[in-house]
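stage 2 :: seqdesign
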């Protein structure tokens, strides 16, 4: 019976080099069993798997299916044909002072609303509130119908 995989054996005793390859196709699952025949499985668009160096030139012929990605952070990149030239990430300051924290929370946390809780108001209070805001709702409505009309008008 013939060998199932193309290229050098996967377990040759020497550690083989790998390259990170991202699946960019549209299938929910892709198995490399026809191109480089590595048997590697990608689970959907964006999944990244380590592929033997010898297999990358074969997969690179299909850029609509696979693209190479830089090594994981902390690993030194190696010179390989097809490895994208991507600049290392910029250093990010790790400390945040009180002024920065206050500015961040103020930009994220909305100011407290001064609108009353319509669900605690009875029909008379809802009518008074709608009239004072000039919402133009039908003030002959009662209960939940009036509350819904006030909410729809902006209350």
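stage 2 :: out
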């Amino acid at each position: 019976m013939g060998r199932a995989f193309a290229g050098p054996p996967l377990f040759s005793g020497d550690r083989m080099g790998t390259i990170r390859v991202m699946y960019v196709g549209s299938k929910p699952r892709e198995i490399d069993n026809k191109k480089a025949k590595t048997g590697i499985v990608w689970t959907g668009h964006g999944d990244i798997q380590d592929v033997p160096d010898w297999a990358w030139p074969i997969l690179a012929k299909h850029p609509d299916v696979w693209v190479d990605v830089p090594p994981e952070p902390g690993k030194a990149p190696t010179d390989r044909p097809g490895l994208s030239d991507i600049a290392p990430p910029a250093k990010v300051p790790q400390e945040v002072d009180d002024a920065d924290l206050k500015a961040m929370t103020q930009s994220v946390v909305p100011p407290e609303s001064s609108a009353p809780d319509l669900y605690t108001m009875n029909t008379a209070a809802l009518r008074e509130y709608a009239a004072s805001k000039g919402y133009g709702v039908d003030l002959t409505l009662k209960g939940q119908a009036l509350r819904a009309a006030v909410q729809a008008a902006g209350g």
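stage 3 :: structure notes
- Confidence is low (pLDDT under 50) at residues 1-6, 9-15.
- Residues 104 and 110 are 12 Å apart (CA to CA).
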